[in-house]
Amino acid sequence: MTQQPKRTWFGPATLVAAAFIGPGTVVTASLAGANFGYALLWALVFSVLATMILQEMAARLGVVTQQGLGEAIHQHIASPMLRWGAIALILFAVVIGNSVYQGGNLMGATLGIAGVTGTPQPWMPIVIGGIAIVLLWSGNYHKLERVLIALVMLMSGAFIATLILSQPDWGAFFSGLLVPSLPAGSVLTVVALIGTTVVPYNLFLHAASAAKKWSGDAALADARRDLVVSIPLGGLISIAIVSTAASAFFGHAVQLEGARDLSEALRPLAGDSATWLMAIGLFAAGLSSSLTAPLAAAYALSGLLGYGANLRSLPFRLTWIGVISVGMLIASLKLKPVEVIWLAQVANGLLLPVMALFLLWACNHAMLGAKRNTGWQNLMAGVVVLIATGLGVRSIGAALAFW
């Protein structure tokens, strides 16, 4: 049995926060604040709650069964046709989809560095991809966890400090946070905010990493404590970005086209320190997601094919190397980051409701024994699945309309 580590407030759920606070989230949250002010902050509160419901199920699956979601699908779907159908779908949406996301992650980290140096360097995505390769090649889960916890702490400090420096309208802030509203033309932005937080590949990442970290029913308390700290912290980062953009852009005759514009706009509003903090936060968001996207793809594919979750095995390493390599290629093609993010959302829209159903099935399976979902947990998860289905349809439609 796995030796229990000493108790800590941060663990695998921090990897989930590191994964969903990427450049796509920074761009989407910035545009939400610039276009609608503080009015859509409530959507992030809902997103955090939905994420906690799904990720609690994923963590419970990992802790109780000592398996990731991919391994559960491989071992417990009896029909070969259904099993290989699931493998094909996840191969397309997680592995290929994450390869596209990886391009956006590397671009985002590069833009963060450019915010400090003043000039984006075409070779920087290769350097950042190389850093990700070195860290993942170590095959040391606990080292990766510590690096990602540090990056989440760096993001938290940078984005929250930037928010304070931007001097937000606190009355409008709390109104947007607590009172749901849908300003004209905001529906797709709400969909995008939810879609950047409730990320399907995080179900694979969380279940497998929880199995690495903990074992036994007693460890569920540790997993849940980690969850209620890390996921709201990630949501707080998103809220800070929306609010900073609202302070800098909403109601002003300035157009925001990307996260770098937000960094530049903060200079007259809050000085050079805010610009640097935003750039540091964007770099940390890009680098953290550059680690979690290939790691999640490797966990998913290795589990589905029955190779297990050995971070030093050849199949595991080949998967994440492939994801990073494709991401570096995409980032080097000088594509517009927003276009890359929209393309990745197509895969996200296809995968999210299906993966939520797979997780719901797994958490009602006999393999969890007495830790299977209760009726209340099934009700909450069912609501999230319905919303995820609507989100998937709308995000696909929005992406197709964009193209």
Automatic annotation (TrEMBL):
Keyword Transport: yes
UniProt GO cellular component terms: plasma membrane
Single GO molecular function: manganese ion transmembrane transporter activity
Stretches that traverse the bilayer: 39-63, 84-103, 123-140, 147-166, 186-206, 227-254, 274-302, 314-335, 341-367, 379-402
Predominant subcellular localization, coarse grouping: membrane
Membrane topology classification: Multi-pass membrane protein
Cellular compartment(s): Membrane
Keyword annotations from UniProtKB, A to Z: Membrane, Symport, Transmembrane, Transmembrane helix, Transport
InterPro entries, per database record: NRAMP_fam (IPR001046)
A GO biological process held by the record: iron ion transmembrane transport
Superkingdom of source: Bacteria
Protein name as catalogued: Divalent metal cation transporter
Organism per entry: Pseudidiomarina sediminum
